[in-house]
Structure formats: structure tokens, C-alpha cells
Amino acid sequence: MNTDTKNSPFGGQGATLFDKIWDAHVVSSVENGPTQLYIDRHFCHEVTSPQAFNGLRERGLKVFRPDKTTLTADHNTPTINQEQPVSDPISRNQLDTFARNAAEFNLPLYFPLGHTKNGVVHIIGPENGFTHPGATIVCGDSHTSTHGAFGAIAFGIGTSEVEMVLATQCVLQTRPKTMRITFNGKFGAGVLAKDLALYMISKLTTGGATGYFVEYAGEAIRNLSMEERMTVCNLSIEMGARGGLIAPDQTTFDYVNGREYAPKGEEWDTKLAYWKTLKTDEGATFDKELVYDAADIQPRITYGTNPGMGMGITDSIPTLDEIDEAGRISFQKSLEYMGFHAGEKLEGKAIDYVFLGSCTNGRIEDFRVFTDYVKGKKKADNVIAWLVPGSWMVEKQIREEGLLEILTDAGFALRQPGCSACLAMNDDKVPAGKYAVSTSNRNFEGRQGPGARTILAGPLVAAAAAVTGRITDPR
Amino acid sequence: MEKFITLTSTVVPLPIENVDTDQIIPARFLKATDKSGFGDSLFADWRYNKDGSPKADFILNDPTFSGSILVAGKNFGSGSSREHAAWAIDGYGFKVVVSSFFADIFQNNALNNGVLPVVVSAEFLAEIFASVNADPKTSLTINLLDQSITSNVTGKTETFEINAYKKECLVNGLDDIDYLLSKRTQIEAYEAARN
């Protein structure tokens, strides 16, 4: 565990960005125990919240700060015919329960299915201006790390903790260790934020950052747009990190300014002055530092059943000799599930499905990249493509920018917003044995449907696969 | 929450690494609105065939192994934050999960449900797997008070880490909400100081 003095501003070495935000939110510290941390923004969805509301009812509690919880239905929602009643009665009951809870506990920021502000929780948060630099943000969802892109401490919590936040606007957390990952230099052609993240996860493995909160830094990170930064921070959890964050800068302030729930007027000026102080001091130390060169990264794909099992698109799957002895059973089990062989190249392999969407890559920039590639081409006949905007705001933008027309001409159709095939709670399931090139975040066994085989990639690799029907280098 | 002090039990070995929460409880089982019944779906896709019949080669379906301690490969519980994973493990009847490494959120979720995650060294873990393979009746004793885990076959003991506050909670069957609710005044003072 990090010693509280090590990075303290009073220790003479300066503080990290993480320390500054954490220290500003400490309500109390339990002796020999965790920190009681105040939460500025709580996001809530239908799947991980019903038991928390039950807990409040059982204890006779109200929601402590109703205006600090934003609710959207996204995980267990259909991506077609949302205007009609949800056909699966169990899913419908979960959505109805969510609605009843929002009403019973007087929660004003409730965006149900069909609402113009509805969409994937980590997409609607930033786009409506709920996500601010310097804030503490939680949600019963591990990809809450997305919001760290704004220079916030954002992390996923369990349902018991959702109940704690609803009841007290606080959680109890052990202070994580700090890590800085620096990406120097510039990306090569055809390399996107998703490729950077998949590269990093392969280097660290799925548990390599467990116990740490990561700050991303360096020229390649600075040059990323806000949406690309969200993609990087989103995937922090896939290497086990508690979260990831990027110091706010002009890119961040320009994104937040003017959004509906962002501070306005005098409040904006005060906040902005504070936000500008949010960076790691020179001389501050991290528990771990890693440095990579962005020029070493090529478009990435995964070949196995966790996000750390990835490689450059032109590379070969490792041979058994390259795997630690303790990990060989898992490695072989994984390749068997995927129908691949050790040492094999995957470029040129036929695929069946393409999924563009999720909190990782369901934003307008992802749709622009995809559309730009498929423009004037045709979707391969053997491919079923699910294009799922992250929110209704993204969907609207797709139409307004004329992307829908281009996509339609290329043989693609747009579905309605939601988490969709990322976790396949709804009907968007990839059939057993079929290969899906997916812009989502997890290639776990059965993640996209029982027996489904997921190849994670960025939106450009997904676009190339969609038009060739094969794993294709988009460069 | 139930109190936890000590437990002696035979074990169920699962020598797979990076067991993610999608394996522990697949997403399609997350549609319930209460905490009960998840034990039946624990490891559903590894445990059952498509028609619902048990897969003979999965460890939970092998009558040779039983007990309230699950022993798993490193990085157990990675991925999704779903607390349903802890409810499924608890619902099935496991009170302790032993591994050489746990994912953060799972560890918190387990502790919040009275399921004790015990971190042992990679060597100790390998020895447990070897003992259980040689003799399925191998039992382990976990003593939370002195933070020890002992193999009743080899007699070997290791101590494990647990934060003193969480230990106190488990020993007394208290949860974090009780603690936080007692801090309402401080929370209001914190809010007032910020505004």
C-alpha cells in the first residue's frame, strides 16, 4: 500500500495528479483501514442497482444526495424496436424495477429507454457534461475508468458499494498504489487509441496493474482527442488497474465547456482555475513507471480469451514455449476455445460478425473512422455487422454528419443505442463457434454469447474486416 | 452479514488462471433483481451443456471434490465488477476462495458478502493443487483471527494479509454501510466546507 506521506505535498517531493484529487475527497480515514471517500458523481444502470435499492428499503433509508446520481438504462436493453415493449419478461421486469426505484427515491436525473439522453452510461456522462476534471466518479460497472480521461478519479464498484453511495455519497476504499505509463512519440499510420490500449494490456497482462491507479502521460497521450483518451482510460481495468486518468488540458476544457450539466458562468471560471492546477508536480514519484514508444505500435487484434492475449495484426500467436509453465493449461484452453493454434498467423482468416459500439468505441469519432474506411466499398456478404451508437446523441450526429447515408450505401444498417453485443445480455448474441471482430473491451469465453469467439480490435480494423470478410490490415 | 472466524473444509480445485467474472456468472444471468439463486448458475457455461445437463469433466460436477473452499489459479475474479459473482460463489456454498492473486473489485465484493479471499504464495497454491490431486480428502484450515491458512495434509502454514478494518467487519458480521451511516455528521461537514 502507498504510504500517505510519500507523495504528499508536505513531503517535499510534490504530489501526483491522483494524490491531489484523492486527498481533496477524504472525509475520514479508518484506523488501519480504508479511506472514506466522498463521491461527486454516481452513475447508475439497471443491472447492478436493483439489489442496492432493495438494501435501502430494508434499512428504511432515502437516497442521501439525489442530484448526484445519474441513471440510464443500457446493459439489458434491445437495440431494435425500443419504442415497443421489451419482449423478454425478465428483462422488462428489470427495466420496470429501475423506473420504479428512480421514482420512489425521487431521482431527477433518470434517462430511460427512448429518452434523448439515454445511452451507454460512460458515453452519456461525458457528452451531457456530468463528467468533470478533479471529480470522484463511481458506477456499478468496471468501465467507469472511462471518465478518468477528464482528469477524474473514476472507478467501478460492486452493488454493496452502490448502496453505500446512494445512502451516504461515500465509499470506503483502500488507497491504491500509483503508476505512470508514458507514451512518447507519435503513432504510425492507421494506429488508433484502441491499438495503444491493447498494446499496453498485452505488455502488462490482465493483472499487471492490479492494485494501481494509472496516470497516462507523454506526447502520444497529449495529442489524443477527448474521445480517444476515453478509449484508453476505459481499458485501464483490462490490465487490472483500479482506474486510469489523464491530466486535464485545453482539449479537456474545450470538450466540457458548454455541455448541459457543465458548470456555467462564474462557477465555470472558478472551477476552471482549479482544474488548471490538476497535474502531477515535477518531482512527484510513482510506485511504478513504464515508458513506451508510440511508434512501436501497429494495429492490434486479440487471439485469446482475455484482453491481454493480443498481438500486432501481422504477428503470429505465441508458441507454447513462449508461455510460462503455470499458464500453459489456460493458454491451451483459450486457443482451443478460439479454434486457433499456437504459432499461427491470423491475417486473412475469415470472420462472421463485426460489432462497432460499446463504451470503448461507440462514440462519434469511432463511427467517423469506420465510415471513412467503408466509404465507396461494400460490406462482405459473409459478414453480419452490428453498428450500435453509444447514445442517441451519437446516433443523431451520425445522421447529421451524413454518415448514415454512406454506411447505407456500403450495405450497413444502424441499430439503436445500448451496450448490445459487448456483453450480450440482450438478443445481440454471436452464435457459438462464430468469429466476431469487435470494438468492445472483453474477449472472455462466452462474453458475446455462449461459445462466441471474440477478436478485439479498433474501429479501423473492424471496418477492414467488415468489407473483406477477413482479418485485414487496414493500412 | 454472517460472522467469519475459522473454517476447516475439503476443497474444490480449479487450477485455471485469470478466471473472469463472466465465467463465474455469465451476463445473461444478471437479469434478476434480488441476490438469491445465483449459486445454481455459478460457472454456468463450464458446468452445464446446452441442454442443461451437467458437463461430466467440470470440477463442480465431479463428486470426488467438495467443500466450502474454492482454490483457483492466479488473478481470480478479473473483468466485470458484477457483485453477482460474489453472490454466486456464496450462494453455491463457498465461504473462502484461495488464490495467489485476486482482481481488486472482486476482492471487495467478496468481502462485502462475507466470502473471504485468501491470498497465498504461488508455491503454496501449487502445493495445495498437488495435495488435492493426490488425495481429494485434503482439507485446509483458515483462521481469520491469526490470519493463517494451514494444509492439514502437509501441516504447512502461511499467513495471509487482510486489512484490519475488514477483518473486524468479518469477525463481527458488520458491513461498511453501518460504518458509513455512523459518519453522517462528518459527511455533512465535509460538504459544507467545500461549498
State the largest interface: A-B, 67 and 55 residues
Q: Bin the helical content of chain B.
A: 25-40%
The quaternary organization reads as heterodimer
Mean pLDDT across the residues of chain A is 96
What spatial order of strands do you see in the largest sheet of chain B? 4-3-2-1-5-6-7
* Number of extended strands of chain A: 18
Q: Tell me the Rg of chain B in angstroms.
A: 18 Å
Count the beta strands of chain B.
7
Radius of gyration of chain A over all CA atoms, rounded: 22 Å
Notes on the protein architecture:
The complex is a heterodimer of chains A (475) and B (195). Chain A is an alpha/beta fold and 475 residues long. Chain A is 31% helix and 16% strand. Chain A is built from 16 helices and 18 strands. Chain A has a five-stranded parallel β-sheet with strand order 5-4-3-6-7, sandwiched between helices. Chain A has a four-stranded parallel β-sheet with strand order 11-10-9-12. In chain A, strands 16-15-17-18 form a four-stranded parallel β-sheet, covered by helices on one side. Chain B has 195 residues and is α/β, with parallel strands linked by helices. Chain B is 33% helix and 17% strand. In chain B, strands 4-3-2-1-5-6-7 form a seven-stranded mixed β-sheet. Classes of the chains: A alpha/beta (475), B alpha/beta (195).
Detail the topology: elements first, then pairings.
The complex is a heterodimer of chains A (475) and B (195).
Chain A (H helix, E strand, L loop, with lengths): L16 H7 L2 E4 L5 E4 L2 E4 L5 H10 L9 E4 L16 H16 L5 E2 L9 H7 L8 E4 L13 E4 L2 H10 L1 E4 L3 E8 L8 H12 L7 E6 L1 H4 L3 H9 L8 E3 L4 H7 L8 H11 L12 E6 L6 E3 L7 E3 L15 H11 L14 E4 L1 H4 L2 H11 L9 E4 L4 H9 L2 H7 L25 E4 L14 E4 L2 H10 L7
Parallel strand pairs in A: 3-4, 3-6, 4-5, 6-7, 9-10, 9-12, 10-11, 15-16, 15-17, 17-18
Antiparallel strand pairs in A: 1-2, 2-8, 13-14
Chain B lengths: L5 E9 L6 H4 L19 H4 L21 E4 L11 H9 L3 E4 L4 H8 L4 E4 L2 H13 L4 E5 L4 E4 L5 E3 L4 H9 L3 H6 L2 H11 L1
Parallel strand pairs in B: 1-2, 2-3, 3-4
Antiparallel strand pairs in B: 1-5, 5-6, 6-7
